[in-house]
Amino acid sequence: MQDATIREIEQFLYHEARMLDNRQYHAWLDLLTDDVRYWMPVRTSRYAKISKSVVLFDEAGYDETDIAKEDEQAIMDEDKASLQLRIARLDTGMAWAEDPPSLTRHFLSNIEVEAGDTSSEFRVFCNFIVYRSRGDHQQDFYVGQREDILRRGDDGQLKIARRKIVLDQNVLLAKNVSTFF
Q1: Is the pLDDT of residue 92 over 60?
Q2: Distance of alpha carbon 101 from alpha carbon 71, whole angstroms
Q3: Contact between 44 and 69 (Cβ < 8 Å)
Q4: Residue 62 confidence (pLDDT) above 60
Q5: Are 130 and 106 in contact (CB under 8 A)?
Q6: Given 20, 94, 148, 177, which is the most exposed site by the fewest CB atoms within 10 A?
Q7: Average pLDDT, stretch 138-144?
Q8: What is the pLDDT of residue 171?
Q9: Keyword annotations for this protein (predicted)?
């Protein structure tokens, strides 16, 4: 992978984070492909098969994977149309979860870039912290990892074709999850 491509992808992600922090949601939608999947699988606590602390009678309880699979429960599983509807709802002034609007700050780190399945795609991994405050007393921290598929369009611009968001918590303390990651 060329350094110039990695730098371009990093700058793309930083630009996207700034757009979200500035609540430029309609412009953010333009960074998504029409076939985007925006997915936050549920994370659960599961025991390792070598665990000596408990004995489970159901072997399925020893599943090593703590992240829900593609066909299992998710906190979010959206496409571009559902994301557009969420943003349109924000425009109505009737979205109680965002009135007053949240203030967010996105921090990205440990960005890694790999070749994707096609020559126009890149697999991008990063860690994130999203700080959200709303009103006088609500504060939330979301910490986790993202796996993105970025696709270069015919115009040469990068767009997000897939985003998998994995939180490092399996119990959400936030009153809602209206934040974009």
Answers
A1: yes
A2: 33
A3: no
A4: no
A5: yes
A6: 94
A7: 95
A8: 82
A9: Oxidoreductase
pLDDT value at residue 83: 98
Cα–Cα distance measured from residue 166 to residue 179, given in angstroms and rounded to the nearest whole number:
14
* Residue 162, CA atoms < 13 Å, CB-side half-sphere: 12
pTM: 0.89
Contact 106, 20 (CB under 8 A): yes
Q: What are the structural domain ranges in the chain?
A: 3-35+81-167
Q: Is residue 111 classed exposed, middle or buried when 0-12, 13-18 and 19+ CB atoms within 10 A define those classes?
A: middle
State the architecture of 3-35+81-167 in CATH terms. Answer: Roll (3.10)
Residue 7 has pLDDT above 70, yes or no: yes
Pair 163, 145: CB distance under 8 Å: no
Which of 39, 53, 37 shows the shortest CA–CA distance to 162?
A: 37
Please tell me the total number of residues recorded for the chain in this structure.
181
- Its sign, for the CA torsion 43, 11, 114, 71, is positive
